[in-house]
Amino acid sequence: MSVADYEPVIGLEVHCQLETASKMFSACPVGLLAPPNTLVDAYTLGLPGTLPVPNARAVHHGIALALACGCQLHERSRFARKHYFYPDLPKGYQITQAHEPYATGGSLEVPGFRDAEGRPKRVPLVRIHFEEDAGKNVHVPGEDHSLIDYGRAGAPLLEIVSEPTIGSPEEAAAYLRELRTLVRTLGISQANMEEGTLRCDANVSVRRRGSTALGVRCEIKNLNSFRFLAQAIAAEIRRQIDLLEQGQVIESVTLSYDVERDRTRVMRSKEDAADYRYLPEPDLPPLWISSEWIDRVRSELPPLPAARRAGYLAQGISEDDAVLLASEPALGDYLDRTLAAGAPAKKASNWLTVELLGKLNADGIGIERSPVTPEALAELIAMVEADEVSGRAAKAIFASLYGELRESEGSTPPLTPRTIAERDGHRQVSDAGVLEAAVREVLAGHPEQVQQFRAGKTKVRGFFVGQVMKKTRGQANPQVLGELLDRLLGEDD
Length: 493
Ligand code: ADP
Ligand code: MG
Known about the structure:
The protein is 39% helix and 19% strand. The chain is α+β, with helices and mostly antiparallel strands and 493 residues long.
């Protein structure tokens, strides 16, 4: 058999650190930039006698994500202790939700991917649950000891577990990107892979194409970038197919990804995996989430990425642009304001993705700090639509507007596309009466060329266009000018 006879099946377990002022079960502050071991309290350190209290803000965030994914939210859920010994886990156990998570089911749309029926692909979720984070071991190269930072211990996490239905490394990366977009849109997490507020483990198996039974899965731990996620999964698919092709069986193992060699490496077999001895957390009553609470969170949900994309596509925006513009809440907000100010969708998305993002990216400025407001962009687009300025002049006006506003940080008197068009003489002359006088003057001033044109040397037409443009300082509407020229040159004198 060959590689093409196999089909990969992928399921992701994603951890997402929630944006809260304090930890999951204590009032201890959380933060990413604090010096090591400053964000600790008695609870974080696992000192005897401390009691956990769930963080209402974290639960609010969890409800928001579950609603956005269409999960079933359970009124009653439970916390459990997951026991294992690790230096960064001072209590010796982690509080998580095991058999009774607060949310099950639901799904996440993966932009750019389609299911077997050609509809936008949705990856179903197994569950979402709350848990607290562990601390961080810091291994200092060349030292015979490691350091531990307890600052992260107890930070609030959501774990989002997908069903094994992701079909390729690229789709896995797109799924994770969409999850990042979603939690950022909801404002519940910074979801930054580099900083560890978004982390991913990938479960991978392969099977004969056409088979419906799942193969044995292996789990790749701690993938900390979108690129490495896709590369690691691709490498693991290769490893498994190679083994099967050699007639071997796949053993369920936990792996890490070796970036240098582009290979997955076995860390431990599942057989010696810890028995976590889950038990219901005796210090916490069940978590109750009332329907009133759910309704309140639902009423505060912002526009969600999938709905935004669908809306943009329906308005004729290309799929690539729709995905891009819905990928960040501030980008979608900008487009929505431009549309609300009357700009046609396709034009607005072109100006935004090509001209504005081009400049902002070059200058390293985020869309929230764009010198050109959505309303100004809409005004400029309207001027082009009404033939007040040519497309070329519009680009010049845009460049001036962007540059001058950026320099002056909002200038007085207020700069708008119209004031710049006036000031710099960009207004297009479309009035046939006004243009006719100019054309007649040019023709009268060049009788020789007119003779040549009438003798069949049609190339001179370009010369006349140039002369009229010069006379009108480039402001003649090219279409109106062309029609005039054809008419007047066709006349006998
Ligand atoms: P555990 O904590 O033991 O890894 P979880 O239920 O938390 O178990 O996660 C299991 C993950 O493995 C899910 O994301 C699921 O989609 C994935 N998975 C399960 N079976 C397979 C399989 N055969 N191939 C690929 N992924 C799988
Ligand atoms: Mg797992």
